[in-house]
What we know:
By secondary structure, the chain is of the alpha/beta class. It is built from ten helices and eleven strands.
Amino acid sequence: MTARIIDGNALSARVRGEIAERATALTARGVQPCLAVILVGENPASAVYVRNKVSACEKAGIRSLRLDYPADVSPEVVMARLAELNADPSVHGILVQLPLPKQFDEAAVLEAISVTKDVDGFHAENVGRLSQNQEAFLPCTPHGVMKMFEAEGVDLAGVEAVVIGRSNIVGKPMAMLLTNAGATVTVCHSKTRDLNFHTRRADILVAAIGKPRFVTGDMVKPGATVIDVGINRLPDGKLCGDVDFESAKTVAGLITPVPGGVGPMTITMLLENTVISADRAARAAGK
Ligand SMILES: NC(=O)C1=CN([C@@H]2O[C@H](COP(=O)(O)OP(=O)(O)OC[C@H]3O[C@@H](n4cnc5c(N)ncnc54)[C@H](OP(=O)(O)O)[C@@H]3O)[C@@H](O)[C@H]2O)C=CC1
Ligand SMILES: Nc1nc(=O)c2c([nH]1)NC[C@@H]1CN(c3ccc(C(=O)N[C@@H](CCC(=O)O)C(=O)O)cc3)C=[N+]21
């Protein structure tokens, strides 16, 4: 058996087309959606992601402001800039690229972003709202995964879902969204005893670990849906996921590739959140 592959690029292109139409309509109403992206330091991977986000904005008719700071910038400078962006009515979304250099208190920076412009969905208030199944900006990566389930007709009610990883940006919100959708969710991490016992029971297996090709075919239940969130750069410069695609695809029923899987969907959901925020701002301004 070989798994059907979920094409994140194709789904992204479709959704981004709809987002571009909404952005055009908002611009015609006098409110062009605008995303501000803050990058601190010269981490080459972060620089690539930020470039991708800015170019995706342009293509969708969303204005972007790119704000770059040296790695040794004082946190007060960034905090002051955040306050300005919060107060600027022409800015609808604010993203601070993570990770930040060690002089920063990441949680404090995320709290300093206005809840209404928190298009990453990382602010404690948005996290709290998500945990209560209330309307909120949803974190882009797990939201993108949910869009993939929807597009592929994956039924979530009552299924056994296993998430490997418990980070604030991927694992935990992924588990929350799956729980809200009616799955029975197990969250695994580095302290989990007998990881394979859990993964082999999973109808849906989400890998968000940060270890190249960690999940192998023998860990997958036959016919399962396998979602690979991992982005790892190998010494030869190639990208690979947290799943060993070659062995997993012979066991799984449905699987995402890396690249071309979850990554593009993350950016798509960021664009969508920015357009939603701009639409709210336009309505509030009576436009
Ligand atoms: N496609 C996309 O859009 C995105 C991709 N990513 C990628 O996803 C991956 C995960 O990112 P992120 O969540 O930020 O990473 P973190 O490093 O914050 O979290 C990794 C998680 O994996 C767990 N883990 C580590 N080793 C093992 C192990 N041997 N067995 C079981 N669990 C383990 C950790 O456990 P513990 O908590 O105990 O340490 C932790 O919970 C990375 O490759 C990252 O680059 C991230 C964001 C977006
Ligand atoms: N505040 C914040 N928000 C984030 O959303 C955020 C972050 N910080 N820090 C880092 C992670 C990582 N992340 C990715 C987004 C897109 C791709 C992506 O588009 N990947 C392409 C490949 C890109 C390439 O070729 O390098 C793909 O998988 O096909 C990957 C990774 C967002 N993150």
